[in-house]
Amino acid sequence: MTLMQIEDPDTPPRGFALWSLGFRPFYFLAAVFASISVLLWVLEYAGWLGVPYLEAPTRHAHEMLFGFALAVIAGFLLTAVRNWTNRPTPTGGWLAAIVAVWLAARISMFVGNPLAAGVLNAAFPIVAAIGIAIPIARSRNKRNYFFVPLLVAAGLAALAVHLAAMGVLPWEARSVAIAIGLDGVMFVIAVVAGRVMPMFTNNAIPGAGAERRPWLEKAALAGILAVIAADLLGAPPAIMAPLAIVVALLHAARLALWRPWRTLRTPLVWVLHAAYAWIPIHLLLRALAAWGLVAPQFAIHALTIGAIGGMTAGMMTRTAKGHTGRTLRADGYDTACYALV
């Protein structure tokens, strides 16, 4: 099976580089937004930055998922799809327009109009999906078709949060939509990690011996799809807890085959292994939460801070270095970032 290549340097861009490839504006803006959001969330929880239709916890979850995580995913896909298909992805004015939709969606969260916020937050992943759908379809790159409906589903999930705030959907729909969105991001991480982490590990560490087992790859990904279905259907603890344990064991076995203990001297690689380890931890905590043994927030933050935070930091630094012709080596700032996450 051909693995994805996402780190080969591009031809140096001419003119203003920001709009030359998707990772450039989206990685930058996602990092800035994440930093600013920490302060904004503190102000919200203190009651100094009220939002009339989304209470602080829901807004926090919404912006981390549909603001930060989707920006990183969009930047990655708008860059990687060009390599996978050998066809152009949005650049220049088209890329700037997609970025403008994302910025407008972030601003809309402060104006207090749930309809505008819902439309803009749904529109961003959908226009990003269009940006990758065209080269994928023209190249008949069938193994990556699924990214398009995933982005569309993310847009619908974002819209559902706002429709619940408007009373069009039951208020509980916001929690289901956010849970499905987080599951979707976990699925994207699992797919991308399975394709690149064995390659990254073996390329960076001679003799590492990272390997993939086709049956385990399929079972691990199918397990996450089963979790998504269980969340969508509101499965009871008697189903969710055993399912989460089985899927956690599949992903732990998958990670073990990638030999994470052999990456400890290579920060640009170990950060990806450490981030991925939080997926089975998240699933085990989900089982414990379903049984009422731990608070659900522990499971949520194992995924959001551990897996999503660690993987975005690791992939953003790695792919940015590769696509700008820099040495694939983590410097002191990168390593400090990984360790803090």
Strand and helix map with partners:
Blueprint: H1 23-45, H2 56-85, H3 92-108, H4 114-139, H5 147-166, H6 173-204, H7 214-233, H8 237-257, H9 267-290, H10 296-323, H11 332-340
Helix content: over 70%
Shape: globular
User: Which class best fits the helix and strand makeup?
Assistant: mainly alpha
Low-confidence segments: none
Assembly type: single chain
Q: Give the rounded overall mean pLDDT.
A: 92
Query: How large is the radius of gyration?
Result: 19 Å
Sequence of secondary-structure elements: HHHHHHHHHHH
Portion in beta strands: under 5%
What does this protein look like?
- By secondary structure, the protein is mainly alpha-helical.
- The chain has eleven helices and no strands.
- 73% of the residues lie in helices and 0% in strands.
- Helix 1 (23-45) runs antiparallel to helix 2 and helix 6 (173-204) packs across helix 10 (296-323).
Features:
mainly alpha; 341 residues
Give a summary of the structure in a few sentences.
The chain is mainly alpha-helical and 341 residues long. Helix content is 73%, strand content 0%.
